[in-house]
Design brief:
The chain is about 30% helix and about 35% strand. With about 500 residues, it is α+β, with helices and mostly antiparallel strands. Strand 15 and strand 16 (about 265-270) form a beta hairpin.
Length: about 500
């Protein structure tokens, strides 16, 4: 029987799970339930992945890559390792390939289908890169599922209880906050928010910065600024010591950050949980800001939330639980907090291979965490951003905006696509553009349509349409005037299919 697996492609660690024999189980990778998302290259060309690669971060930091997920979607980011130029997609594909090899070995057959999770706040480019990494690893990526949604499915499946839940997902490199209404096995996302550059790594970095400052005061050595090979190794030692201290402070009131030989000196610093919490307070405050934002977007108050569920390894920090309890309510810590996301993904994946009579009754209604739109000239001839798909819109979806040429005899319309919430396009993220020839140019204004389609994986497809002059455009204009410049898509689709409208389409990439 072929299986489709659920993969949590984490910044720090990865997990793979499958639904079989009526239950979800985590598949071991090298004998463990999680695998470090680390890749290392030996001089001979051998590629190490997971625990073996992580072990080489001290021995050979120059040829080892970790936390690449933080740079997904960044088309300028490259890693120069062992004479190769690797992108974050390349690194992720190597990690995914190793995960799938282990899953296939455990299941006793080749695994080619997978549902992969992504942070809810990932952009379209980050989602697209994740899907590309899966495909590059030889996978048929059935679906990208937001991590908080996967966690909610794993938690709420077959509970028989209607509830409003908040998923607080703080992993190694990303933070997500989502509110979902659960009715039976229907999971409706009400609002999402988060930060793709906030996670447990930042808690470690806060300790590293503090320790480096103390070390410089004691020894005069600027550990942060030392670019030598020895300096790199010392910083890696400090990173591991900081991570160990963070873990120890989840169970004790104080610990020591110790490196017996740090560039010829001994580093031995005591760190109390009170000091650690103070170092992390700005990071925790950022999560509070996102919690308040998603509550506002959903039109809810803290008292409306039935349960807050903590997901992600960084939520093991007591300060996280304390701040969630203070701002919302006492949180529920998910069982096997490191595996729950892949469990939800495995439940979604199961419906792609189970016989119809055995399919799991899961329905997910998701929303986009970002507004998507174009730049237009307003009545004052100022360039402004118009959201075509506002944030927190359910997807898959398709929306359109009715516009027109801006000057007589205009022979081309350049439409720039942005993601963001500011009326000034320059303050939003530029995603791409599409040039639509206007044929024939006219003295009068020519009606132009902009259509955004957000697919099931949260990836944009953008279409620009030159609409015909006459009764059809009069109907469209009348509809737009009554509905805040909304494009009447059924009418436009008929014009396109009849050949009366001229179209250009592109899949937007950053």
């Amino acid at each position: 029987m072929p299986y489709a697996v659920g993969i949590d492609l984490g910044t720090t660690n990865c997990t793979v799970s499958v639904f079989r024999r009526g239950v979800v189980e985590t598949l071991p990778v090298e004998g463990k339930t999680t695998m470090p998302s680390v890749v290392s290259f030996r001089d001979g060309g051998d590629v190490l992945v997971g625990q073996a690669a992580k072990a080489r971060t001290l021995l050979d930091p120059e040829h080892t890559v970790a936390s690449a997920k933080r740079f997904m979607g960044d088309r300028e980011k490259t890693y120069q390792v062992s004479g190769r130029n690797l992108t974050p997609v390349d690194v992720a594909s190597i990690v995914l390939k190793r995960i799938v090899e282990n899953a296939s070995k455990t299941l006793g057959e080749d695994v080619s289908d997978a549902v992969i999770t992504v942070p809810a706040y990932f952009t379209e480019a980050q989602r697209e890169d994740t899907k590309h990494a899966g495909e590059k690893a030889g996978l048929n990526v059935l679906r990208l599922v937001p991590e908080p949604t996967a966690a909610a499915i794993a938690y709420g499946m077959d509970k028989g209880k209607d509830q409003l839940i908040m998923i607080y997902d703080l992993g190694g490199g990303t933070f997500d906050i989502s509110i979902l209404a659960v009715k039976g096995n229907v999971f409706t996302v009400k609002a999402v928010g988060g930060d793709s550059r906030l996670g447990g790594d930042d808690f470690d970095e806060a300790v590293i910065t503090w320790a480096a400052k103390q070390f410089k005061a004691q020894s005069g050595i600027d550990l942060a600024g030392d670019t030598s090979r020895e300096g790199m190794k010392a910083r890696q030692l400090l990173k591991e010591a900081a991570e160990t201290a963070k873990i120890e402070l989840s169970q004790s009131s104080r610990t020591n950050v110790i490196i017996p030989n740090c560039l010829g000196h001994s580093l031995d610093l005591e760190l109390s949980v009170t000091e650690f919490n103070a170092l992390c307070e700005p990071l925790l405050a950022r999560t509070v800001s996102h919690m308040k934002s998603v509550l506002a977007d959903a039109g809810l108050k803290p008292a409306d939330i039935d349960r807050v569920i903590l997901v992600g390894g960084a939520t093991k920090t007591p300060a996280v639980r304390e701040i969630v309890a203070r701002e919302i309510k006492e949180p529920y810590v998910a069982d096997r907090v490191d595996e729950v996301v892949s469990h939800g993904a495995a439940l979604v994946a199961a419906n792609f291979y189970l016989p119809e009579e055995d399919m799991l009754p899961i329905e997910v209604v998701d929303v986009t965490g970002h507004s998507l739109g174009i730049d237009v000239l307003n009545e004052k001839h100022e360039v402004t951003f118009v959201p075509v798909i506002p944030r927190q819109t359910k997807y898959p979806c398709r929306r359109g905006f009715m516009g027109a040429t801006s000057r007589p005899m205009q022979d081309e319309v350049l439409m720039q696509v942005f993601r963001g919430e500011d009326v000034n396009p320059e303050k939003n993220a530029y995603l791409g553009e599409l040039s639509l020839p206007v044929s024939p140019p006219r003295v009068d204004f020519v009606p132009i349509g902009s259509i955004f389609e957000l697919d099931a994986d949260g990836i944009i497809h953008f279409t620009a349409v030159q609409l015909p002059i006459g009764s059809a455009s009069a109907t469209l204009i009348d509809h737009a005037m009554k509905h805040n410049n909304e494009l009447d898509l059924p009418v436009v689709d008929r014009l396109i299919s009849s050949g009366k409208a001229k179209v250009r389409t592109v899949a937007i990439k950053t």
